[in-house]
Design brief:
The complex is a heterodimer of chains A (334) and B (318). Chain A folds into 2 domains: 12-53; 60-331, MetI-like (MetI-like fold, Orthogonal Bundle). Chain A is 71% helix and 1% strand. Chain A is built from 13 helices and 2 strands; from the N terminus they run H-H-H-E-E-H-H-H-H-H-H-H-H-H-H. Chain A has a two-stranded antiparallel sheet. In chain A, strand 1 (74-75) and strand 2 form a beta hairpin. Chain B is mainly α and 318 residues long. Chain B has helices at 2-10, 17-59, 62-66, 80-110, 115-129, 132-147, 152-177, 180-188, 193-221, 239-248, 253-261, 268-276, 281-317. In chain B, helix 4 (80-110) packs antiparallel against helix 5 (115-129). The relative contact order of chain B is 0.13. The chains are: A mainly alpha (334), B mainly alpha (318). At the A-B interface, helix 2, helix 4, helix 5, helix 6 and helix 7 of A face helix 1, helix 2, helix 4, helix 5 and helix 6 of B.
Chain lengths: 334, 318
């Protein structure tokens, strides 16, 4: 290839230069590599900058910042910050959201992948994915004015009266729900709606990737359609579905606006789902732009750092799990 | 096959009469439950869209698109500042994310099994999972803190980071779909790799890439969290005035651009969030109208992108 030269360009230096640049390919490869590295640098840069910007808060508060406590303080006046109420709020709302969203999403993905007629699959899939396209502020607006008063308040009262007296679970349903419905329960339900499309899309794809032979073998042995799904497909795609769940959890942990609008934003000691709370993302959304002191903002940067590492970790696991199903599939069957 | 052996070992496949009915009943029950679950998930979708159209439609007016906000207590006024801001931020996000995204995707598609190629794919996956508020904080630390003030530039950068994973992933997928023979034909004709990439592969993949960009824009223009402490919000932002004043005062393009990008701006979701929290009914009504506009914008972008892909792909197959 190197000897390729144009008769029109007699200048030997130009030819040498062209050959050196490989007719521009070296430059091109350099540029696209630079951009690829840039993308990586951004991901690393997020972690690095947050780490640097929270250094004095990390040194000052240490492990005390994140350990569980009932009387945590978040006080910009005395400059004493503990993040446990936010961590608890994030965890409990996300887990409860998953608890609601999981059966629904699994049901939908089974319906989409196995049962629904071919012509309905695409439009129905689109509709479910539209749920993910609605901006989270719109969820919040609809939440505070429509959904909370009409659904969450009655639901909260019902759960409080039924589950409240039970010894251990009752702690999660103690107290009474505010009249407006702003509570951790409200945040959980809204989150459940928002993460349903994520879990559905991934687990539907996992189900669709399972080889036909698996289904046919099970049906040929006489199992009903449901037994085929429950005893063959779900175990087969288990790690992929687990990946879908973790991706959904990651979305729930980081969701900001809708949660901030419906959770009530209060730091009280109660563990109850029926009471207002706070999450890691919503404290940042509410206070970061008006941070009172350097330490105040550093404490919030540290919360963001924790959030970043959690979602990073969850994403790594989820992708590995989903990849495992995708890798295994072509080897068996087909 | 082990799953089937387990099934047999558990003995759940048997044909004694009562069990048969029980299994048949379970089958029917569970299958209908999956259908019901699908319906349940559609309820909030139609509820939200329907209510926003019903409620927002009542308060929508021409003023909303043509007027700047008025002081509280004064009737009327619009959200022109937020519409301008959303456009400005979207353009900035596009400029910051599309060229690097496409080039990085070329790298990932061309060298998929090199360490950097794998890392790029993993990096985009990770990036799409990073909470948007954390992205906002990154843009704050990188731009706002260094510049010393909130700006449209920082907001556009934050939104670009939200768009970037979508752009990279769809572009990479689309480049991979371009037939290898097309690339080889171009190389065989003596075109260099870069020439092939730009004038053969890119046009062949253009449709899918555009779809990815539209989906990315739709996602970015609905985001609020990354703007909270980057673009901040600015009720007096008027891009038209800045540009016309600048031209009248014979300022250079650079100065006008600096004034345009250097100050805080509002966007539709940001305005919605602020108005929804105020205790004034006219502001809340306006926030419903803004929700209407925002949803219309985003759903249209989404539907257009999806229909485009759908019809393109059926055309190629058929």
């Amino acid at each position: 290839m190197k000897s390729l030269s144009h008769p029109a360009t007699a200048n030997p230096y130009l030819i040498k230069l062209r050959n050196f640049w490989n007719h521009g390919d070296r430059l091109w490869n350099g540029i696209i590599m630079l951009m690829a590295v840039l993308v990586l640098l951004i991901v690393l840069g997020i972690g690095y900058l947050l780490w640097i910007d929270s250094s004095s808060a990390r040194e000052l508060f240490g492990i005390r910042f994140i350990i569980p406590t009932l009387d945590a303080s978040w006080n910009p006046v005395t400059n004493n910050y503990q993040a446990w109420p936010f961590i608890y709020g994030t965890l409990i709302t996300s887990i409860f959201a998953l608890f609601i969203a999981l059966p629904i999403s699994l049901g939908i993905s089974i319906f989409l992948a196995e049962l629904c007629p071919g012509w309905l699959r695409l439009p129905l899939g689109w509709l479910i994915e539209l749920l993910a396209a609605i901006p989270s502020v719109v969820y919040g607006l609809w939440g505070i004015f429509i959904f909370l008063p009409s659904v969450i308040t009655p639901l909260g009262n019902f759960l409080g009266s039924v589950l409240g007296p039970i010894p251990i679970i009752g702690m999660l349903f103690a107290g009474s729900i505010p009249a407006g419905g702003t509570s951790r329960l409200a945040a959980s339900v809204i989150l459940a709606i928002m993460i349903t499309p994520t879990i559905t899309a991934v687990s539907r794809d996992v189900l669709l990737a399972i080889p036909r032979a698996q289904r046919e073998a099970s049906l040929a042995l006489g199992s009903t359609e449901w037994e085929m799904i429950w005893q063959v497909l779900l175990p087969y795609g288990l790690s992929g579905i687990l990946g879908a769940i973790i991706l959904g959890l990651g979305r729930a942990l980081g969701e900001t606006m809708a949660v901030t609008m419906v959770i009530g934003n209060s730091i009280e000691g109660s563990l109850s789902l029926l009471r207002p709370g706070y999450t890691m993302a919503s404290i940042i959304a509410n206070e970061f732009a008006e941070a009172l002191s350097n330490l105040h903002s550093e404490a919030m940067v540290q919360i963001a750092l924790i959030l970043f590492f959690i979602t990073l970790f969850l994403n790594l696991i989820a992708r590995l799990l989903v990849w495992r199903v995708a890798r295994r599939t072509p080897q068996e069957g087909r | 096959m082990s799953t089937i052996q387990q099934t047999l070992a558990r003995g759940s496949i048997s044909f004694s009469r009562p069990q048969y009915w029980r299994r048949k009943f379970t089958n029917r029950l569970m299958l209908s439950i999956t259908g019901i679950m699908t319906l349940i998930a559609l309820v909030p979708l139609f509820w939200i869209i329907g209510y926003v159209i019903y409620k927002g439609g009542q308060y929508i007016s021409l003023d909303l698109f043509t007027q700047m906000p008025r002081p509280l207590g004064v009737q009327g006024g619009g959200v022109l500042h937020a519409i301008q801001g959303t456009l400005l931020l979207s353009v900035l996000a596009g400029i910051f994310s599309i060229p690097p995204g496409i080039l990085a995707a070329f790298f990932a598609a061309r060298f998929p099994n090199t360490p950097i190629g794998i890392a790029v794919r993993f990096g985009t996956d990770v990036m799409s999972g990073v909470p948007s508020i954390v992205v906002g904080m990154f843009a704050y630390a990188l731009i706002v803190k260094v510049q010393g003030h909130f700006s449209a530039l920082a907001g556009g950068f934050a939104l670009a980071l939200i768009m970037l994973p979508t752009v990279i992933r769809t572009t990479e997928e689309m480049i991979k779909l371009v037939p290898q023979s097309l690339r080889e034909a171009s190389l065989a004709l003596g075109a260099a790799e870069w020439k092939t990439s730009i004038s053969v592969i890119l046009p062949a993949a253009a449709n899918g890439i555009v779809t990815g960009i539209i989906l990315g824009l739709a996602r970015a223009s609905g985001e609020t969290a990354p703007l909270l402490f980057t673009a901040l919000g600015n009720e007096r932002f008027d891009a038209v005035a800045i540009v016309t004043n600048g031209i009248n005062a014979k300022q250079s393009l650079w100065v006008i651009l600096q004034r345009l990008l250097g100050q805080p701006v509002d966007s539709l979701p940001l305005t919605l969030w602020k108005y929804a929290q105020q205790p004034f009914p006219e502001r809340i009504n306006q926030s419903w109208a803004v929700a209407f506009v925002l949803m219309l914008l985003i759903l249209t972008l989404n539907i257009v992108a999806r229909l485009w892909v759908h019809f393109r792909s059926t055309k190629i197959r058929g």
